[in-house]
Amino acid sequence: MIKFFVNGEPVQFANDPDTPLLWVLRDNLGLVGTKFGCGRAQCGACTVHIAGEAERSCSIKVSAVAGKNVNTIEGLTPSNPVVKAVKAAWVDKDVVQCGYCQPGQIMSAVALLAKNKAPTDAQIDDAMEGNLCRCGTYPRIREAVKTAAASLGGKR
Amino acid sequence: MIKSPKPVTTRRAFLKSAAAVSGALVIGFWLPEKGGRAWAQGTPKPVHPNAFLRIGKDGTVTVIVKHLEFGQGVTTSLPMLIAEELECDWTKVKAELAPAGPEFANLAFGMQGTGGSSSVSNSWEQFRTVGAQARTMLVSAAAAQWKVKPEACKADKGFVTGPGGKKASYGQLAEAAAKMPVPEKVALKAPKDWKLIGKATKRIDSQEKVDAKTVFGMDVKRPNLHVALVLHPPVFGARVAGINAEKVKGVAGVTHVVEISGGVAVVGKSFWAAKKGRDALEVQWDTPEALKVSSDKLTAQYKELAKQPGPSAKKAADPNAIKTAAKTVSAEYEFPFLAHAPMEPLNCTVEFRGAEAEIWAGSQFQMMDQGAAAKVFGLAPEKVKLHTMAAGGGFGRRANPVSDYIVEACEIAKEIKVPVKLIWTREDDIKGGFYRPAYVHRVEAGIDAKGKVVGWNHAIVGQSIIAGTPFEGFLVKNGIDDTSVEGVADSPYDLANLDVTLHTTKSAIPSLWWRSVGHTHTAFVMETMVDELAAAAGQDPVAFRKVLLAKHPRHVATLELAAAKAGWGKPLPKGRARGIAVHESFGSVCAQVAEISIEGGAVKVHRVVAALDCGVVVNPLTVEAQVQSAIVYGLSAVLQSEITLKDGQVQQSNFHNYGVLRINETPKIEVHLVASTLDKPTGVGEPGTPPVGPAVANAVAALTGKRPRVLPLGKTKWA
Ligand code: FES
Ligand code: FES
User: Fold this and answer.
1) CB < 8 Å from A in window 221-260 of B
2) E-assigned strands of B194-326?
3) pLDDT tens digits, residue range B654-709?
4) Burial (CB count within 10 angstroms: exposed 0-12, middle 13-18, buried 19+), residue B234
5) Predicted TM-score of the model (pTM)
6) Considering the domain A2-75, what is its CATH architecture?
7) Which residues of chain A are within 8 Å of residue B210 when distances are taken between CB atoms?
8) Does domain A81-151 sit in CATH 1.10.150.120?
9) What does the alpha-carbon distance between residue B272 and residue A13 come to, in Å, rounded to a whole number?
């Protein structure tokens, strides 16, 4: 039995401990905001937060999060200033296209801005390069991250 | 991503729904001819509840979008067309994806389908007409209530106002309006009166996508839903010779192992159970030698074929004219197979209940998929309900005339009789075929002393995308698949004695249209050859093109805009160079200037400036987004992506070896829209893809003196 927390709620999982966290979230907990894109830490669609870090849930065994808290896109606190700024910038810059990669993009952007309110272009690239977008929303993602940073008072 | 056959001439009729939802104004629509006939026998009936528009009592306007939303923004742009004429409150507009149904035909195809960059252009008249009809009915209803002439009333922002300060909301009027006759003829607004069309309008699906509330096919939840994975043959066309499921039995959560036409399915209670079950499955395959194709051998064969005489797609008046050329340039080009790799892996959820079935899928071809499913079940198509789900990209992959993964899911569901979601892993997707076919081009072109093109011999070798599909009748003429030669045989350049031959090859590797179809390779060849000829003539590439395009003002204007915005001709820092290309596809003209450098032997693209003439611009924000998208998608293929085969096996499997562009590799992209002379919209989703490859290649040539002719460019070390 593996015990951990998802979005602050206690969770128990009694099946195969090798099950990737992604599929526990999606199939067992019904949290389908975290997406499957590649299954081998190549695309970032499955990005969640563990201890404040953006992590690829497809490549983490559920056994590895025993005792930890996992935050998913559903668990982002709407009133959190970083979350608010990122989502508002995403809407303002009309970033989304198909939207499938976007939960992962937002999780990576939130993790970045929570730590660094004034990222450089290179730091943005660095934080976001693990998140693929086949629709090519990258130009607007860059703009939105900068807009969010500016609204959080980040100066550079 | 299909090129439209000849537009189907339909005598369209708009009818009021016979059984309107109470309290709602519903505009139904049927196709009495051609497009509709196959499905609607006898007297055409008004369609219900499949309608384009619902106005609720609270004034909410729900537009039923007949096209798949898979990124292109059609759930914003199509409602804009209706709202423009309806004069409703834009903030109260919602969009809903239409299910499979003949009334949702793409008017350019004569069947339901999203592709060919046609979503807005084919709906242009239709959706505005629906809006105008509904507005007329709302006004009539108000006029009748107030006992005044309709002409004395006005519709604006969701209200009808009348003499003496009378005012009623659309919500209040909807029920009465539904009983009004549907006007046969409505006048559409003049462009000067447009309030929405042409205005930068934010997508209406942003918030739900940002909140991860959008339900993609992958996210469908049903009671007792099982998950199926399919073990496909390792070599295209191989057949199951034996199955050993012994080890699968030990995997917890696996419920079924089923042989289907395309392989062997393993079904489980969860994705992970099915995945582990599939990993444990042993299958022997019957693989005839002939199927063990290798890319390098294929390319060698294609190159040989290109030298042989072949079926003609266009005949030169004088095939010997090239012999009089002052200078000739000849070149051979190689294009690999390409996978679409949409971000959301392919999936399909099916509930088969014996006498009927229900399907959830992000489909570009709803009715074809519905028909294919019905065939599997032995049911009439109307017994199969297909829900169109939001799709995480598609780029042509979800528009498959053979409905491959839909059929797989249905075969499994039919066998196991429990609700099932088929999921393709990324490996299944990359290895699964339905690729943009590999092609070889061989060109010899000559100019006279003044730089005028006197002869152009062009041979194309590759598989047909269309042969063997229901589109063959429209698009393959005398053995020439139009999609293999589009962009060459119909080149707008003034090329004396253009001669085009096409060798259509056959293989077991399934092929499919991939964002911009034939233009993915033809634009590259045309635009790099023209560039080479300009260099051979000692002329500036822009000036040289303008002379050859003298009869095509849209091309010239687009080329000039891109060149001007990019600072064409202005000096660049050392180690940088620019290249330009212009190409027409899907009715639109796109020109691009790419600025590149070479870093560590690889091409780095710093900036792409695009100009687009797409006729009337409905939503500049989504047009800009689509051009950015098309450029990123095109650049992925130009720089990185490639499917290769060795002894019949695909050598790539996931994004670590099937490279696609990441944010750190994405250039600055600027999009400029040409003030078009057209009075209707033309394609947007695809025309941005073709020019980026040749623009980059021409920049590489300008910098290095070497002409890229083998794709992707990442295969070559540049210096
Ligand atoms: S699904 Fe986890 S990184 Fe792609
Ligand atoms: S928005 Fe479609 S993959 Fe990113």
Assistant:
1) 221, 227, 252-253
2) 226-231, 239-244, 254-260, 263-268, 282-286, 312-314
3) 999 999 999 999 999 999 999 999 999 999 999 999 999 999 999 999 999 999 99
4) middle
5) 0.94
6) Roll (3.10)
7) 87, 90-91, 96, 102, 106
8) yes
9) 14
